[in-house]
Amino acid sequence: MSFRKERNFIVFRFEDGKDVIESLKRVAKEHQIQSGVILSGIGMLRDFEISFYSREKMGYVTNKFHEPVELLSFSGNISMRNNEPFFHLHVALAKEDISAIGGHLKKATVHNTLEGVIMRLSEMKLTRDPETGTLSIS
Amino acid sequence: MSFRKERNFIVFRFEDGKDVIESLKRVAKEHQIQSGVILSGIGMLRDFEISFYSREKMGYVTNKFHEPVELLSFSGNISMRNNEPFFHLHVALAKEDISAIGGHLKKATVHNTLEGVIMRLSEMKLTRDPETGTLSIS
Amino acid sequence: MSFRKERNFIVFRFEDGKDVIESLKRVAKEHQIQSGVILSGIGMLRDFEISFYSREKMGYVTNKFHEPVELLSFSGNISMRNNEPFFHLHVALAKEDISAIGGHLKKATVHNTLEGVIMRLSEMKLTRDPETGTLSIS
């Protein structure tokens, strides 16, 4: 795992086998990021879970995959929830047949590499309500 | 609807039921954004229209949907066209079966939430020709 | 082809028929970008090649297309490899039937237009190992 900061931008690289969300949390802690935005992320993922939020089912419907996929886009933000940095992440992915899938990212392992960028927000505070999930900007 | 500016970055959150493009225009007007870039956007959409530009058909072929979809990526820019801020937007979306679709976004309603970021450009001017659609950078 | 810099952000527009990677290299050379990030890119592509990296096949499996597609998201980074700016690029694309595909972008021609943004990194150095492909951040 390697990462470096320039102004408010942190560029990171996670190696094969790393847990994506745990690795992001470590970057957040090392750079004291309480609020931020994921600006970029490419590479590959495996052993991942993506969800679709269904009102009818009153919650996330989650799909689990083991096989590697290309990470086409990696978007989201970092807010504080229960005094811990929380990552709200969405991904677009391509399977080996190049068809694209995607959703809310619950969990993933890096396959080969993940190269990305976080923008740290230092003047505003993003907070997520632990009960409702609502994001507040203050 | 809430939004806040830090340096040239505006973080916004639109609530369920809001018109996406009208809400973006309101943010642009409140922060006097004449030129800018959409850096991020996640959440869900419903009642949306996405288009494919076809030369053979000499225009956009538009597909309308009502059902909710996850917003995987939200990209685009803000330019002035006929003295109004104009949003050129492309989206990648996931349906309930997690398959991805996408195109040029013509219209959409926020489902649950839309959380995003705009970068304001203050030293350059993006202008879109109302007849040809061509973007000029000056 | 037109492009302009504001702080560390370069906004560009490439016209129909341009080679995407050659055009990005030209922007990188004109603005002396040795390290950077692609923050945005929308428009259309044609005559493109997208790949999936397969460990079993010990390399990229590449799919070639001629037909135009909408460019939904354009992500990646710029590093120095053998003293030349190297672009690691991933794309999500939509076909005329709005289904999405994607992968590692090897080659593409602009269809109609490509409008995008690069962030130049000036305090850190991204380097890619020409043998292993590994990105170093220093």
Labels describing this entry:
homotrimer, about 140 residues, mainly beta, seven-stranded antiparallel beta sheet, two-stranded antiparallel ribbon
Sequence-ordered SSE layout with sheet pairings:
The structure is a homotrimer of 138-residue chains.
Chain A: E1 2-6, E2 9-15, H1 20-30, E3 36-54, E4 59-65, E5 69-81, E6 84-94, E7 100-120, E8 126-128, E9 135-137
Antiparallel strand pairs in A: 1-2, 2-7, 3-4, 3-5, 3-7, 5-6, 6-7, 8-9
Entry summary:
The structure is a homotrimer of 138-residue chains. With 138 residues, chain A is mostly beta strands.
Number of helices of chain A: 1
- The low-confidence parts of chain A are none
Strand content of chain A: over 45%
Q: What share of residues of chain A is helical?
A: under 10%
Number of strands of chain A: 9
How far is it from the N-terminal to the C-terminal residue of chain A, by CA? 32 Å
- Silhouette of chain A: globular
Quaternary assembly: homotrimer
Largest interface: A-B, 37 and 32 residues
The topology string of helices and strands of chain A comes to EEHEEEEEEE
